[in-house]
Write a structure and sequence with these properties.
By secondary structure, this protein is α/β, with parallel strands linked by helices. The chain has helices spanning about 75-85, 115-130, 145-150, 185-205, 220-225, 240, 245-255, 280-290, 315-325, 335-345, 355-360, 365-370, and strands at about 20-25, 25-30, 30, 45-50, 50-55, 60, 90, 95, 135-140, 155, 165, 175, 180, 210-215, 260-265, 300, 330, 350-355, 375. It has one domain: Alpha-Beta Barrel (TIM Barrel), CATH 3.20.20.70. Helix content is about 30%, strand content about 15%. Strands 6-7-9-14-15-16-17-18 form an eight-stranded parallel β-barrel, surrounded by five helices. A two-stranded antiparallel ribbon has the order 1-2. A two-stranded antiparallel ribbon has the order 3-19.
Length: about 375
């Protein structure tokens, strides 16, 4: 997708709609423009830490692209994708595998081989040359891994399988397979695996790492009673269910600094066939209180729609995080730009992440700045990414 022609799109012409984007039978229609004055809070800089100040409050949400090459190395197209969106205050990469044994989806990139690190270095060099900042989202899918990709059974805190079909991109449809529980020594090795991935991310030039602790993946599986039925150091009591997340955080923060570490969390159990069990919220509160003491870069909400109200969270998921976490918070979940700006202005969260709108509009930040109309997201847009 071509970037917005700034010479043609001046404040005097923002009422003109850009041409619709047409792809192989897919029409991406325009969404209404928003008065830039209503979005002013999104364009305030934010001092994220002693090492990084963001130029605005707009975040590219992590969006799985399923476009890595056969070695799970990010392609040249990945660099194009991120650099086109480098006007955001912060870019968060698509979820990135920390080991070859945790893949659950087709063509998702890793950061555990030298070739993958070199591939990501090409991405970060170009993003930094364009004035952007970028975090790597580190990912282990736990029980959602599949032996079709890994050659080994998936692992989980407890042997609680996922049932049904695992629907994949571009024609791959798989049945979920039995999983096995991790023993304590394997859990300790996984902490080291996360650390190695974080060190690889630093070698690849990232500004920091975001631990994917939501969406029903491995860290979330330790937090939830649905998938954690252990009665050792890593399950049973609230403190023990939160232990794995804290150990991973501390291992990485101890090597690269807490200001370069972030956590993404899903207070609402909504993804990966996860269920809410009374007491899960107390585990999350304990975790958030501990993360508050560590001066991390941020905590990031993982949720498709933050307009929903959950009784066990006593409101919206973002409000739950804001009540229990004292640091920088990234909101996310179906917000329109004006809604997000109002939430940031009201202090409901500090930064706003956008996914689908940013996929459809690589020049999203400039369109908001000028008050231009936005192209609507269409799934066919994903076929542009290679």
């Amino acid at each position: 997708m071509a970037a917005l022609d700034k010479s043609a799109a001046t404040p005097a012409t923002v009422d003109k709609a850009p041409a619709p984007l047409v792809l192989a039978g897919v029409m991406s229609l325009s969404a209404p423009a928003t008065d830039p004055a209503l979005l002013a809070s999104l364009f305030q800089p934010l001092r994220l830490s002693d090492v990084l100040t963001l130029k605005n409050r707009i975040v590219l949400a992590p969006c799985t692209r399923n476009c890595a090459d056969p070695g799970l190395v990010p392609t040249a197209g990945a660099a194009d994708y991120y650099v086109e969106r480098a006007a955001a205050g912060l870019l968060v990469t698509e979820a990135t595998l920390i080991t070859q044994h945790c893949q659950g989806y087709r063509d998702t990139p890793g950061i555990y081989t030298e070739a993958q690190v070199r591939g990501w270095r090409r991405v970060t060099d170009r993003v930094h040359a364009a004035g952007g900042a970028i975090f790597s989202q580190l990912w282990h899918v736990g029980r959602l891994a599949h032996p079709y990709y890994t050659g080994v059974p998936a692992v989980c805190p407890s042997a609680v399988p996922t049932e049904g079909l695992c629907h994949q991109v571009r024609g791959v449809v798989l049945n979920y397979m039995p999983v096995r529980s991790l023993d304590a020594s394997e859990i300790r090795r996984l902490v080291r695996t996360y650390l190695d991935a974080a060190l690889n991310a630093m070698a690849a030039g990232f500004d920091g790492v975001e631990l994917h602790g939501g969406n029903g993946y491995l860290i979330d599986q330790f937090l939830r009673q649905t998938t954690n039925k252990r009665y050792d150091r890593y399950g049973g009591r609230i403190e023990d269910r939160a232990r794995f997340a804290i150990e991973v955080t501390d291992a990485i923060a101890g090597r690269i600094g807490p200001e370069r570490v972030a956590m993404r969390l899903s207070p609402a159990a909504y993804f990966g066939l996860m269920d809410y069990t009374p007491g899960d919220e107390e585990t999350l509160i304990h975790l958030l209180q501990n993360l508050s003491q560590r001066r991390l870069a941020y905590v990031h909400l993982a949720l498709h729609d933050d307009h929903q109200v959950y009784g066990y969270l006593k409101g919206r998921a973002s409000a739950f995080l804001r009540r229990h976490y004292r640091g920088t918070l990234i909101g996310n979940g179906g917000y329109k730009p004006a809604e997000a700006a109002a939430a940031v202005g009201a202090g409901q969260f500090d930064l706003a992440a956008f996914g689908r709108l940013f996929i459809a509009n690589p020049d999203f930040v400039e369109r908001l700045r000028l008050g231009s109309e936005l192209r609507s997201y269409e799934r066919g847009l994903l076929e542009l990414f290679r």
